[in-house]
Design a protein that fits this description.
mainly alpha, 2 domains, 4 helices, globular
Amino acid sequence: MRQSEKPNVILILADDMGFADLGCTGSEIQTPNIDALAQGGAMLSAMYNCARCCPTRASLLTGLYPHNAGVGHMGANLGTPAYQGFLRNDSATIAEHLRASGYATLMSGKWHVAGDFEARNVDSWRCGTSDPAPARF
């Protein structure tokens, strides 16, 4: 890679998976695609989970404690900024920082840091603010 080229960044959060469940960390489970990504990149080893998926995602995406990001519990708005159930406007995600540096950013999978909504009522979903998908990455 030339010095002027930006490296690719792939951030993966897998629910209910332990650190040692990957082949590259010593598991007997074969994970060749993730192992190949790990071999060609950097493995972060100081991520702490927050015991629930929403707060963990909020921390991973923003680099903040989940309460500082607005997702101190799960998706329901409990009436305070720390427990509003969706990412606060003053907590930028890694995608927003990367976009400001000229990266194209994409998201796939479960967002789950955007408020309480009826998961089965897809027609009621609206992008952004306190809804199930980001407005713009």
